[in-house]
User: Fold this.
Amino acid sequence: MRRVLVAFAAALLISGCGNAGTASGPSPSPSTGSNLNFDVTVTETTKAASMRVGQTLEVVLHAGSQETNWTQPRSSDETILAPIVNPAATAVRGVTLAAFQARAPGHVDVTAFTGPVCPTDMACPMYAIAFSAQITVTP
Assistant:
């Protein structure tokens, strides 16, 4: 039974890899974003984006109906891509928003995680879904 669950979790993680896309500024925010004119917007299907120093990045992550909300997105190097206050931090249920500002040239990863909603007194699959977007900041 344990092998079946491990195989199922591996299949979910592999199938969870979405389309690779590149965002570059300026780009409009999706309708579930804040529409506050961020220079670059990435979603759970974005794998890479490019931006310039001084530009702002909005991260908009949608949780599936059977998933928990995404963890707060984090930058792997805050000296390059620093979190900022997102004026639209109040999102609809199931949507996680984050905002960052490019402070220096370099490469960073923005990551977040989600997992299954587990009802009480029921068996729950043990898997996690990872979001990771590689952000390139140019001068």
